[in-house]
Structure prediction request, 100 residues.
Amino acid sequence: EIAVGKKLGSSFVSNALKILDKIKTFDVTTKKSWISEEFFIINPDTMDPKIIFRLDSQIDIQLASLQLILTEAKIDLKELTFIDLRFDKPIVRFAPKNHG
Prediction:
């Protein structure tokens, strides 16, 4: 738990900075982000997808998964609303299709 007076592990901060740097290359805009426990949450209340990373390890694998998910969504013309990369199999939600 993060609280006033507590220190974050240096790996959490460096991993969060690595994530922010890399997602720029994926054309993901970061309007708001924060660290909560060992998780890094991006865009929690914007039109862009909410993305959750696990900060303790495997940042490169999570970033590779994100890149693949974003690429497939772009090819399939699907709008993403939520991507959770904390697990071995990421959880992905798409926006409902408009039938009109």
About this structure: The two ends are 46 Å apart (CA to CA).
